[in-house]
Amino acid sequence: MEEHVRICHFRNHYELTRKNLMVKNLKRYRKSLERESGRLEAAKCDFFPRTFELPSEYHLFVEEFKRSPGSTWIMKPVARSQGKGIFLFRKLKDIMDWKKDGTRSEEQRDETQVESYVAQRYIENPYLISGRKFDLRVYVLVTSYIPLKAWLYRDGFARFSSTRFSLNSIDDHYVHLTNVAVQKTAPDYDPEKGCKWEIQKLRRYLTAKHGSDTIESLFKEIDNIFVRSLQSVQKVIINDKHCFELYGYDILLDQDLKPWLIEVNASPSLTASSQEDYEMKCRLLEDTLHIVDMEGRLTGREKRVGGFDLMWNDGPVYRDDVNLETLGLSCFPANTHLGCVNDREKQLRHILKPFPGQKKT
Amino acid sequence: MCWPCVFLSRPPPGPPAAPPQHTKEPLQYMRNAQASWEKRILKSLNSMCTELGVPLARKRPLPEQRELSNKWNEMGTDEPDLSKFRPVYAPKDFLEVLVSLRNPNLDCSEEVSSLSHWGLIKVPLHVGDIPQVREACPELTLTSGQLGIDDHPHVPSGTPHVPSGTPHVPSGTPHVPSGTPHVPSDTPHVPSGTPQIPPTLTSPQVPLTSPQIPLRYPSGTPHPHVPSGTPHVPSDTPHVPSGTPQVPLALTSPQVPLTSPQIPLTSPQVPPTLTSPQVPPTLTSPQVPLTCPQVPLTSPQIPLTSPQIPLTLTSPQIPLTLASPQVPLTCPQIPLTSPQIPLSHFCIAHSKRANMPSALQIVTNRKKCFGRQAASDLFESEHVRLGRRVLGEQDSAAAQQYSRQGCPTGLRAPLWALILNSTNDPEDIMHYEQLKAGVIQHDLVVDNLIYKDVKLTASNDDYYFVFEDFLYQVLLCFSRDTTVLEHFNYNSATPPKSYIQGKAEQDEYAVIYPPNGVIPFHGFSMYVAPLCFLYNEPCRLYGVFREMYVRYFFRLHSISSHPSGIVSLCLQFERLLQSHLPQLFYHLREIGAQPLSIAFKWMVRAFSGYLSTDQLLLLWDRILGYDSLEIVAVLAAAVFAFRAENLMEVTSLASAEAVLADLSTLKVMPLIQIFVFATMI
What we know:
Chain A: Pfam families: TTL. Chain A: GO terms for molecular function: ATP binding; ligase activity. The complex is a heterodimer. Chain A has two domains: 260 residues, D-amino Acid Aminotransferase, Chain A, domain 1 (2-Layer Sandwich), CATH 3.30.470; 73 residues, ATP-grasp fold, A domain (Dna Ligase, domain 1, 2-Layer Sandwich). Chain A has twelve helices and twelve strands. In chain A, strands 5, 6, 7, 8, 9, 10, 11 and 12 form an eight-stranded antiparallel beta sheet that branches. A four-stranded antiparallel beta sheet of chain A has the order 1-4-2-3, with helices on both faces. In chain A, helix 8 crosses helix 9. Chain A is globular. The relative contact order of chain A is 0.15. Chain B is an all-alpha fold. Helix content of chain B is 38%, strand content 2%. Chain B has 24 helices and four strands. Chains A and B meet through helix 8, helix 9 and helix 12 of A and helix 9, helix 11 and helix 14 of B.
């Protein structure tokens, strides 16, 4: 590959973005952390719901399932996206039926391999806003795995389900899945209305309800999810300086304001549902290209480029503007600004060197 | 009958006891207008009911009751057929009524002169001009701390801010070709209060007016800021609107060289009052190189467009024009080399774009030197601490005073509840549950109006759509709440009555309808929507909303002479524009775009649905803090001032509306501050 070429995926990105592999990597990472740094450190990885791969871990799953009677589980095909093939269940019988169904259809299609699924403990107490469930879509850009260099985008959005949440109707996909792809097919979906809040709105809303300290720590925990999940695959992913990858993280909050990692997407949807959404995604792509910096307009030492803040650079990155009050504290504020004001244009004007040949204005 | 005088700000009726309607509204013609307006609303409601063949109220059959109570938390999922229902009235119908209001004792000739009122509201009422507003809102001065200025009180800015040294460049372009009205995206930058700022921001103006350069300014709109203590230029000559609205507005605009032949730079009338002793001696800054080369003050040839000479303290869009042509801002006595004038600030302040509020930049830049971020952070954290103390004390009056400088996002909900004395005790919860039972038992026609309104407004809002269910839970209960009736003791409106079928006009068969006496109009639900942002439980939300309504919001749709009433607000808005932005007002009037016809919809909803929520809540903080809606009129005028430059270029009502269509990028507090405290009076 030639020096100037850049590719928008790492070769085995599926280690993080396939549901079963992500969980496998996270479980392994957790174990090694527990070995090396103890339980407390390992507990920081407890941000994904209990998950089993089917059919390979079927027996482990049945064991766990019986341990917590009455719980709700969700089945997802590992390699599909946009909410296809997802269903909820509470009884083992349902999944038996599915197994039969599944095999039959596989036979019909003449496929040899059984499609693998993950069974995941369903978050039964999601945080609701006015009775609606939502999840967060946040963008993380990785420009290198060794050393790990990851950027967090300030914008993102919360996707609301159009109907009201209740566990009584577990057959109703529309309630449970917040994917826009699923919501779009809901009978009363109105594209004009949109089901999204910018993440800034959500942060404001949560701050108004719970106070700024609680929400600061919530966002800190969310940062933790990004970093840990990337670290979990750091050793497996084949690093290549020509590669970069933009991940779309799906995060769910529960009523105790604990964030849960639902999944990571390697090719986050970039189709826009509204003008606002369109603009946000354009900004995102533009800033991604700025960081990839094919034009050589950056120094490579930036901590912020447009809406992206450098979150991890072979170690945590801290804010520059540490003021006197925080100076005394033991922990520095991290250089992450999810859901903060994105005044990217001003910042970009500032850091970007002019194009070669372009006159300085 | 004994009518308790609930509203305290009006003097209690002296002997002989004033009739109760005087407590509601002392002016008879206002009472009459309100009465006939009510008649119209009722007629409209009745005719719709007759047309559709629906009764005003009916008891729901049991299965329906059960169904409703099951889906109480998801009423928004219901999609009743509302196509036949229409809002009883919309704000523009109400505006028509206000425009036709007349005081029978006043002969208002339609002839336009500089002294007559150019606006739509023709009744004489006493409304505050800028000096009164300043007096009433001392907490809003440029030097006192405010939430909502430099800080991002809701969303932490977290900006590792741009390395200082480079002046802040506004993103709005200085000149916009007519035809395509450009809506400025940037907001003026007002530093939040810091003690470092010299109280007199205008001192830089002084050197501008050297004896060699007696300036004459184009006839214009807002006057340069001359704060108290500094020489005030009397504008005793009645302002004559120049027939050429094209006269460039901004002195600093690069397109407008002030040496242009239209604007003679000589003026014989040098007011003798402007003498140097007023230059505050406090402004000395010895480190300043007084011989600053950028400011060739002694040269009579200076083109006034030189970006090095900041002229006034105004926002980028508030045109920088100075006083009327007759008032030269000269000040011959001030020695140009006076060591008291910190010339350095000129140099610091000069911006690449000349339409920048230069004097403000001085402050901004000064603050940068002192650590601007640190200063506003300091105020913010101190303010939050103070807020916690106020809450700890549970002192309602203190909370109200506190709210004048803005409530921090995290504390706003409890602070507002404290100011409004809205509690969430078991009695309140029980009261709410009773109302809810009332909703479940009976179906009212107004419910459909509420449904319709929520669907038309809040559900279409890309922010408030989430709160649809909350809105029903509050508004349906509100319509059944008879405790709301108490506010009619001091509201000029009278609750509408309906009669049991066949017993028309017999008072013993009359019932108030709807039970709370308030017929919702188009946009009514927007009074509630922003509050959903603050309160999770419908019951608390309900309590706060009801209190907000009976204290403030009812005044926005009833005809009265109260200073917070909509008539006064409209008049105040028009007066502010006429006296401080006369050229703009005249221009808009000439092209058939009366400012009030654009601003009315904002004021009737107290800006809800027009501003972004964080800004709206900052505005409502001040409504609560000052216990008055006047700030709404001030903001409306400030918005016009802010976009004046663009408005001057439009030639039709539609394009004027386009310029003002999107207010969601505005930052309200800087706008208000600049308009109130940086406009020369």
